[in-house]
């Protein structure tokens, strides 16, 4: 059997952190003090070195790719002798539960909107496309949240297709980590951004393992550049447990929280419950459905301890 290492050697240029950091070239850290504070505010553990060493080179690369897509649009307009509807550049971010997809997505959004060529960058998470809680209960899927069958993939593909088509306004459903359910009161409106970042553990999945009559285009058919955030499972489980402990003080403590009963747990009890959720839901989902999609990504970001990136793999 071909090993993962030889597949990666064939498909990707590999960069150690120091080498990747040099590819920032002359991109200045143009963030204003407020933007920097906002980034730190959303995650006080995020180090500034991570932004300069990892994310600035990445924003430079993405700016070049978006520019080449915009050029291609001009070529098409010339060939067709008409002005075509601009289509947003779509970036997807995949990876395990708790790997830091939404943090990565928010850093990229902040950095990419600084470029004058693409100031409007929207961010959508696929959490909103989980079936509503009542449907999951009815289908017996409460212990399968995050598995492919827990998402309304038809709705997700229709959404991304409408955004890609350049529709004036497309609505995305929103998810609440407090009620553990889709929000019924509010939507997110996407109005012809220059770039859309779509973040979720399922964005590289194909549905090819489902019955033939339920197959549809893949999310990746609409994506211009895909990123997979990777880390060893031992680290992921640790990060999941840490976040579960944080939630106990935050989201779980709100009276309307689905997990309100967790808010009074001791550290040991909370750790044991989080470890169990990992071992029975998120770990198996990672191994069965998420990790196998990794080598479809255009870029793999490999994290080590403390969320520090130690290797970057870029498709040849
Ligand atoms: N670059 C980083 N530096 C430090 N901590 C981080 C970083 N990225 C993520 N974290 C922490 O790791 C945990 C998971 O992050 P995040 O919520 O971004 O993950 P996610 O992959 O979007 O998770 P989910 O799929 O469950 O929504 C959080 O506690 C977050 O604070
Ligand atoms: C919403 C998802 C599926 C993905 O972000 C995840 O955070 C989740 O709720 N997983 C189910 C098991 C758990 O509570 O972690």
**How far do the termini sit from each other?**
22 Å
From the 3D structure, determine the CATH topology.
Rossmann fold
Secondary-structure element string: HEHHHEHEHHEEEEHHEE
Summarize the biggest pleated sheet. Answer: 7 strands, mixed
* Individual helix count: 9
Properties at a glance:
single chain, 316 residues, alpha/beta, seven-stranded mixed β-sheet, two-stranded antiparallel sheet, 9 helices, binds adenosine-5'-triphosphate, binds pantothenoic acid
Describe this structure in words.
The chain has helices at 4-11, 17-22, 33-42, 48-80, 101-112, 133-138, 153-164, 233-249, 267-290; strands at 12-16, 89-95, 121-125, 170-176, 181-190, 195-199, 225-230, 299-303, 309-315. By secondary structure, it is an alpha/beta fold. The chain has one domain (4-315): 3-Layer(aba) Sandwich (Rossmann fold). The chain has a seven-stranded mixed sheet with strand order 1-9-8-7-2-6-3. A two-stranded antiparallel sheet has the order 4-5. The two termini are 22 Å apart. The chain binds adenosine-5'-triphosphate and pantothenoic acid. The site of adenosine-5'-triphosphate has 16 residues, from α5 and α8. Residues 97, 127, 145-146, 201, 277, 281-282 line the site of pantothenoic acid. Belongs to the prokaryotic pantothenate kinase family.
């Amino acid at each position: 059997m071909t090993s993962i290492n030889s597949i990666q050697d064939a498909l990707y240029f590999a960069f150690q952190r120091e080498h990747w950091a040099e590819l920032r070239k002359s991109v200045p850290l143009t963030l204003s003090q407020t933007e920097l504070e906002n980034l730190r505010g959303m995650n006080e553990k995020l180090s500034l070195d991570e932004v300069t060493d990892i994310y600035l080179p990445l924003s430079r690369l993405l700016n070049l790719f978006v520019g080449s897509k915009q050029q291609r649009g001009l070529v098409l307009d010339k060939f067709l002798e008409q002005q075509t509807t601009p289509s947003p550049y779509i970036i997807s971010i995949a990876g395990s539960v708790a790997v830091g997809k939404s943090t990565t997505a928010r850093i990229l959004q902040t950095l990419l909107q600084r470029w004058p060529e693409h100031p409007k960058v929207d961010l959508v998470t696929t959490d909103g496309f989980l079936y509503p809680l009542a449907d999951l209960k009815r289908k017996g899927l409460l212990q399968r949240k995050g598995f492919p069958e827990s998402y309304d993939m038809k709705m997700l593909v229709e959404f991304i297709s409408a955004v890609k088509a350049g529709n004036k306004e497309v609505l995305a459903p929103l998810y609440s980590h407090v009620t553990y359910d889709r929000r019924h009161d509010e939507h997110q409106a996407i109005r012809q951004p220059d770039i859309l970042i779509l973040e979720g553990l399922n964005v590289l999945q194909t549905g090819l393992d489902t019955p033939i009559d339920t197959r549809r285009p893949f999310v990746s058919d609409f994506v211009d550049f895909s990123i997979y955030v990777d880390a060893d499972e031992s680290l992921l489980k640790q990060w999941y447990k840490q976040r579960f402990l944080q939630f106990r003080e935050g989201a779980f403590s709100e009276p309307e929280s689905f997990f309100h009963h967790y808010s009074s747990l001791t550290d040991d009890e909370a750790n044991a419950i989080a470890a169990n959720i990992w071992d029975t839901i998120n770990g198996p989902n990672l191994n069965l459905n998420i990790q196998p999609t990794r080598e479809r990504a255009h870029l793999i970001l490999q994290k080590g301890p403390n969320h520090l990136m130690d290797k970057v793999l870029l498709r040849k």
